[in-house]
Specification:
alpha/beta, 3 domains, six-stranded mixed β-sheet, 18 helices, globular
């Protein structure tokens, strides 16, 4: 499966850089880290791959001498040392905090060697590293495939070109919407996407989805400190997908667990990037400051995985507008997933906005920082008049720009809020969620 990934372009730039540092590739299990590096290995004359889940590979890092480690790796893997470019890939590095610590010495003592390490649950492993090599390694976070990368897997180059055309042409709208609908059902886990491209049969994917979810559950439980913590974590991961809106920690999932117990379990799942807590903000201008005293929402690693757990995929095939399905939560979740995939920051999450006052509660689905503005984004079907919360945001903020994500065609409309403030509403089809930053630029430039 040929997938065009933004991360691959980053890796090529890293390879060409004169100031190259060892690179730590991060992300949840099964998002394609190993496959990506094996693709990159074709650019090198020599390639050494270590997997620290194998005892023999892990034992190489007993010593602090990186020359001995490298020579032993050459011997163990049957690679002949040479002066040609050599890529050393250390996979599953979370199994050895010592190996993470030694990355700095590869940077200092072997500057000609290209070193990439990858792992899942790295946040847990880093807590055991006595001296993390800050400033001596670079980081790259890998997400599930976004829509553009999904199209790359389909080898649908025409659709990829359309996605990069601003504004999107009207004639392509329904085709792009149909492709996105398919992507919304399946999600972006590389193994799942590869199987679907080969079989075109959604029913055949259920076993792989279940296996992935069980793997995540087993992984995180390894880091529970006692049986009670393990039980809470298992309960949370089993019940979290069924929460449709903002959550409470106390008694989570109809349990008797206390707020502190549930909070600790959720923080562990957040470290593993399986389930993120998304807190609201009350800000109207940058920066976005999450309000940790207000109830959060969940953002799962992958929408397709969430669909499978909830048993929704069969129903989704016949739905015309995804906003009419499951109270709009699935399409909102996927658009957030798309936005997350466009950011390089390791912990980036798009927040939502709330105004909670005695006689007036308002909520905007997503707020995004753009220069000196916070841009409100609503995921809505229906008429412009339903955007009451968005109007309240616009009335109070320092700019006239708003976005609605929906199943309709692209357009920019001029409106006024009920209180009389002029603003520009850009209507974006769902499939442009991953291009939202480019379209915000377009909106601002075209309305000045």
């Amino acid at each position: 499966m040929n997938i065009t990934r933004k991360a691959y372009a980053y890796l090529l730039e890293w390879k060409a850089s004169e100031n190259r540092k060892p690179l730590l590739l991060r992300g949840a299990r099964q998002v394609g880290k190993t496959t990506l590096i094996r693709d990159l290995a074709r650019e090198f004359s020599n390639y050494i791959e270590l997997n620290l889940e194998r005892e023999a590979d892990k034992n190489l890092f007993i010593t602090d001498d990186v020359s001995k480690i490298l020579n032993a790796a050459y011997l163990l893997k049957g690679v002949v040392p040479s002066k040609k470019p050599t890529l050393l890939f250390i996979d599953e590095i979370q199994e050895s905090p010592k190996a993470i610590q030694l990355l700095r010495y590869f940077f200092e003592e072997k500057p000609d060697l290209y070193v990439i390490a990858a792992g899942s649950l790295l946040e847990f492993a880093m807590q055991q590293v006595p001296s993390f090599p800050v400033g001596r390694i670079d980081h790259l976070y890998l997400h599930p495939l976004n829509f553009e990368e999904y199209l790359g897997g389909l080898n649908h180059t025409n659709a990829m070109d359309i996605l990069k055309t601003i504004p999107v042409p009207d004639y392509a709208h329904q085709i792009m919407l149909d492709l996105y609908h398919e992507y919304a059902i399946i999600g972006g886990m590389p193994e799942i996407v590869g199987q679907y491209i080969d079989s075109k049969n959604i029913a055949m994917l259920s076993k792989t989805y279940s296996s992935l979810w069980q793997t995540y559950t087993d992984d995180v439980e390894k880091y529970a400190r006692n049986t009670t913590e393990k039980n809470v974590m298992r309960h949370v991961i089993q019940t979290a997908p069924y929460e449709l809106d903002r959550i409470k920690f106390e008694g989570f999932g109809n349990s008797n667990y206390r707020s502190r117990e549930v909070g600790e379990a959720l923080r562990s799942l957040s470290l593993a990037r399986i389930i993120q807590l998304v807190y609201p903000t009350t800000n109207l201008i940058p920066p976005i400051t999450p309000n940790l005293r207000k109830r959060p929402r969940f953002q799962f690693l992958d929408t397709g995985l969430l669909n499978s757990i909830l048993g929704l995929q069969g129903e989704m095939i016949t739905i015309q507008d995804l906003n009419d399905f499951h109270r709009g939560k699935i399409i909102h979740h996927l658009i957030c997933q798309e936005i997350i995939s466009t950011y390089d920051e390791l912990r980036y999450i798009p927040h939502f906005w709330v105004r909670e006052e005695k006689d007036a509660n308002s909520e905007v689905d997503i707020v995004l920082r753009h220069s000196e503005y916070l841009i409100p984004v609503e995921v809505k079907s229906g008429k412009q008049g339903r955007l009451r919360s968005l109007h309240q945001f616009i009335d109070r903020t320092n700019h006239p720009y708003a976005i609605r994500m929906y199943a309709g065609s692209f357009s920019i409309e001029k409106h006024t809020t009920p209180s009389g403030k002029l603003y520009y509403l850009m209507n974006l089809p769902y499939y442009l969620g991953g291009r939202i930053t480019d379209y915000i630029n377009y909106l601002i430039k075209s309305t000045k």
